[in-house]
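Input record (one chain):
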Amino acid sequence: MKHLDSLRDVSLRQSWLTVGVFDGVHRGHQQIIQRLTAGAHGKAAPAVVVTFWPHPASVLGGGEVKCLTTPGERADLLAALGVDVVVTLTFNRALASTSAEDFVPQLQGPLDFHHLLVGYDFAPGKGRAGNAARLTEIGTEKDFKVEVIPAVSDESGVISSTEIRKLVATGEVAEAANLLGHAYSLHGPVVHGDSRGRDLGFPTANIDYPGGKILPANGIYACRASIAGDRRVAAVNVGVRPQFHSDAHRSLVEAHILDFDEDLYGQDVELEFIARLRNESKFASVDALVQQIGEDVKQTRALLSKN
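The corresponding structure, as predicted from the sequence alone:
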């Protein structure tokens, strides 16, 4: 799979295309992608996804949207579904002001697409004027077919990235995974901390996570940790460590990887959030904290041995 950051030097033939943010690549997105790859590969054509970074709402809405996936994570998820080419375009004011009538030819030249799949609520172009009806009209003029994929719903309603981001932000990671179709995850290099966990008998790997990622609510989580392809079980603290640093301004992500005591500094560790165990709390004493961490580890081991 090729992941590109622009349309420069792209020259495809007879591709199938879908366009959207695809944050999280959730179950609704997966339905679009599965139709895209099946149709494209059935015609021996490349399956192409054009997506955007940063999130358009960060540019248009006046505040940063913390995302479920970075561009690289999104591309990896799309590749796993069979996508051949992902193009991540920079979303800025200039792109936001481009009409659908102008945006479509900018894609059609380098991608030569003849089949465009869109989600039920997709509407590119200035003022979201490029709805399905208008795209169909443009398709008639430009010789491509538009296929609209309906929404995917469950008992809580239409599955959306916005709703999943809310679930992650409140720590409801199991519910988020149900809508995503995979566990919410983050990864980053292990950086040096103050060795507080080792002093307590529970050494931790401090993960330097990307700034653009949404972080689960402060608390203790049962996670799976991947280190160079080796999957482990981890009890993870997300928070400010009120027992020691109550004035911290940025939440820390500290993973105690069970039955593991190797040097991880500089290595990339991915954490998949399976379940939230409890709130982050300040205890009456350090001994009480250590006792609770021991219970967290036992609960994590029991929970993930069944999962």
